[in-house]
Fold this protein.
Amino acid sequence: MNKLSLRDLKEQDLRGRRVLLRVDYNVPLDDELRITDDTRIQATLPTLKVLTDAGARVVILSHFGRPKGKRVPEMSLRPAAWRLAELVDAKVDFIGDTVGEQAETATREMGEGDVVVLENTRFLPGEEKNDGELAAQMARLGDLFVNDAFGAA
């Protein structure tokens, strides 16, 4: 597998391609599920700008908390997606699933420069176990992978 930096890619390499962007949106929330510090979201804005300006279709993957493979509504990435939509000049959609038909349809039908935030990867039992089948399901959602979550690498 070739490893390149984002600087190595040109617009023609990105335009129309689905880019899986791994980020760390593990942000603090108050009792009403409002983000109290969006520093980690802000840190991803330069990468998002490069990708969306080049016409990439950006698919965001992140974890939040430690739900241990179960859906925990208080650990949804929905608040992060809402905050991201306020910060970027791009269409941002939240998908309540990480893999499966809903995620596949959303990533297939999104437009150039659009962003889709998928649900918390840790809602899936195999995420913390490095499940190969789960990795393959996630990989089918994109053409390229960019890691912008070095704290979680």
About this structure: The mean pLDDT is 89. Residues 78-87 form the longest helix (10 residues). The chain has one domain: 11-152. The CA atoms of residues 23 and 150 lie 8 Å apart.
